[in-house]
User: What shape does this take?
Amino acid sequence: MAERTKCGGHGRTRQLFFALGSFFQRQVRVARLAVIVAVSAIAFLLGIVLFSYGSRLYEDWRETRLLNRATALLQEGKLSKAAQTARELVARHPDFVPALYVLAEAAEKQNREEAVSWRQQIARLLPTDLDSQLNLASAALRFGKLDLARQALDRVPANDRDSAAYHVVAGWLARAEGNFAGQEEQFAAAVKKEPSNDLYQFNLAALQIRSKDSEKSARARDTLQRLSRMAPYRTGALRALLNDAVARNERAAADSFAQQLQMSPEITFGDYLLCLNFYRKLDEKKFRLVLERVKPFAARDPGNLAALMDWMNQNGLAGDVVKWIDKLPAAELNSTPTAVAVADAYATTKNWSRLKRWTRTGTWGDSEYLRLAYQAIATRQSRPRTGNASDEFETLWRSAEQSANEQPEHELALARLASKWDLEKESEELWWRVAKSASSRREALEWLRRLYRAENETAKLYDVLQRIHDSSPTEAPITADLARLGLNIGQNTEQSHQLAKEAYDRDPNEVNCAVTYAFSLSRLGKNAEGVAIMQSLPPEQLHDPHAAVYVALLLAEAGQAEAASDYIAATDDAEIYPEEEKLLDEAKARLATAFADPSAAISALPAEQSPTPTALPR
Assistant: This one.
């Protein structure tokens, strides 16, 4: 029994150990499983991290590789491929600035307007970066988007607006607006900031060589002479120097510049036309020989052929163009630019029958509106102005306007044609439409100014002058014209007095500005101050009829009757404006009063001086 008990105890002990062993085995398996799960989770997470990091590294490597490739293609001149590669990058990252730079550069080198949109995106992403805003402004100017260029310059921080680069871009904007005084001011500021920059020196000299200021033009001439010996500026400098020499009739110098220009590797066909201008002045026989040598060369290229015909039309050689046309194969006259030049030759020579035949049929591509316009002009000029002819003209002209399709460059060409052929109603409508485009606004307003001046429509003229002044407020002669007209017609009198002073302060040596301010002072009851200003001007300038009217009025007001009579005589048989006629009548009335009282007329003159016919008494 004891043995059974002992045996039973051993059995229970074994069971206990067995149970404990099983328990520990289960625990070990659970722990092992937990470890495996944990390790697997860590490995999984580590794999995700490594994959993500590796993918990012790969993407970064791939993007860097694409950017390097795009940049290399751009430098090699493979512009389309460079743009295609950069577009891949922008498709992944729309705000990736380096890729946008490649796209902008490629588009600019291909002369594509999309460059503006790429520059806009860069400027949006880098709003305080000077170069980004200047690049946008430059691209906008290149494609005639003047308002956008102005906005870009307005965003340039104030502390960056005194940089040379800013002044250069602002100068080109001023030029595009027709503000040549502003252009010179900005270019001069750029040179002042960086006097050793030859590009800035060239820009200023090419502008100032045409200046009426002899010191400025002489200084510009010296600068261009120096730059003509430097490869990057040689051709441009020679062009400016040749134009200047021809304008000043310095034939020996012009001949030298023409010879140098023709030897330049960068010479263009336009430069040959520039040389023709000189040779025509130099020697008619030599000019004819050169022209005959240029003709066959021009005929090889449609663009050159059209350019030469156009130059001949504008220089009184349209008859020669008509004779030349008969000798050229018909195939060489098929290009659109040449077709337009042929039509202009027929119109200039008033060969209406041939112009009608030339423009009756065919398609001139983008210049279809000009074919219809020339057809309309031929119809109007070749027939008496009967009802049917007038109706046909109206129909053709309206078709030409519709074909222009509200494209600014087409409407500009049509407006020029209408003005050339004295189509006043049609040209007025077109010029107002063209004036909506910033790039051609100044030209349009100048044409309207001439139109309203010729018709003596002073209210409309004042409006046009106000618009020109608004777009070019620093241009002193324009400011003076606006002020003087305002004073004459009683329009915005207070502003007109203020503008007269502004114009004089800006350019006191310009006769128009000085005379206008003197007139303003006289109207303000300060006639003696006005006379003093006129006394400071060269007498020969004051004898211009338009200036003489005001001199006579102020002298009559001062009681200087005999001197005033001399300036009144300067207006005899001269064409002066209606408002100036009224001022002249006012001066004559004052003189009549003065001569009616001889003692008053004599006492008005300084005792120690006597008036002369060429100078104001002092």
Summary: Residues 76 and 617 are 72 Å apart (CA to CA). Residues 600-614 have pLDDT under 50 and may be disordered.
